[in-house]
Amino acid sequence: MLADLLIAALLLLGGGFVLIGSWGLVRLRSTMERLHGPTKATTLGLGALLVASVVFFQAKLGTWTAHELLISLFLFITAPISANMIAKVHMHRLRTGAVSEPASIAGPPPRPANGSDWATFEAPHSGTPTSTANS
């Protein structure tokens, strides 16, 4: 009975996260906003669904399965990396004028207060502070 409740709760939680993430992917306008749906909510939803599968096979069939845990690990490692790469390519294409973006629900991003620019592929401008982390 406890295993059934845990499985049902994980399925509902996972299904809710997947639904919210998918809705965000379809509904939000700009590419940067669309990245958050599949990389955050949907990844958590799939993780909950896969953990529910592990609990089901252990509770009902008495066998441990590592496939779901390996899939979850792969998803949690690759989703942020792929989102970072997509965001960098998108920022670079916006900067070069190769693509235009519709108006965002959140509005334009705020500019830094000191007049510097956000992280880009450009070389640092003269007079801007540089990082001393690698010196």
UniProtKB/TrEMBL annotation:
Transmembrane stretches, start-end: 6-26, 38-57, 69-87
GO molecular function annotations of the record: sodium:proton antiporter activity
Stretches assigned to coiled coil: none
Assigned keywords, A-Z: Membrane, Transmembrane, Transmembrane helix
Region (Disordered): 100-135
Protein name (database record): Multisubunit potassium/proton antiporter, PhaG subunit
Species of origin: Sphingomonas jatrophae
